[in-house]
Write a structure and sequence with these properties.
Layout: E1 2-7, E2 10-18, E3 22-27, E4 30-40, E5 43-47, E6 52-59, E7 63-68, E8 71-77, E9 97-98, E10 104-109, E11 116-117, E12 122-128, E13 131-136, E14 141-146, E15 153-154, E16 161-165
Antiparallel strand pairs: 1-2, 1-8, 2-3, 3-4, 4-5, 5-6, 6-7, 7-8, 9-16, 10-12, 10-15, 11-14, 12-13, 14-16
Length: 168
């Protein structure tokens, strides 16, 4: 599979050839091979003679949210209609449901019921893996319902906020 991602303002290309036991990663022409050990359905360990990477990921329709040794990356598949097959992952889905990219705890909501939100506006901060992650809106909408409170634990794919899409 080929992906593109932006890091520090630069576009990068990632080619990934993965099986259950190994993977070959090529980022901008630099190729590395890893042994793969799945920890659970949303995390794995990549090992080679030079490094040991712990990778957590969440998949949405066209985006993979990846946390590698505490650093967060967002990757989109290039070309055609992609569908990674996952539920929501830190984004607003077509139905207007905001979900988290990984299990965590809600630190605080940045909006309240009835608020109108813009594209890319922060909605909620979720702590996952000892990191605070701000989940942003991908649509213009109205906050219909906050389904949790600060301090509540949340899981991947469970709607945190219900949004009603508004016309731009």
């Amino acid at each position: 599979m080929q992906f593109e991602f932006i890091l520090n303002g630069q576009l990068h290309t990632l080619d990934l050839d993965m099986s259950k036991e190994s993977c070959r990663v090529n980022i901008n022409g630099a190729e590395k091979d890893y042994d793969v050990r799945f920890i659970d359905e949303n995390s794995l360990s990549l090992l080679n003679t030079e490094e040991n990477l712990t990778v957590y990921f969440a998949i949405s329709k066209d985006t993979i949210h990846i946390f590698v040794n505490g650093e967060k990356y967002t990757v989109k598949e290039t070309g055609g209609d992609s569908d990674f097959g996952g539920a929501g992952a830190g984004s607003v889905q077509e139905k207007g449901l905001v979900t988290t990219p990984m299990p965590g705890t809600i630190i605080k909501f940045l909006v309240k019921e009835g608020d109108v939100v813009e594209v890319d506006q922060g909605l909620v901060i979720v702590e996952a893996m000892k990191m605070e992650n701000e989940i942003r809106s991908t649509i213009k909408g109205k906050v219909v319902k906050l389904n949790f409170q600060a301090g509540d634990a949340v899981d991947v794919g469970i709607p945190i906020i219900d949004l009603e899409e508004l016309e731009s």
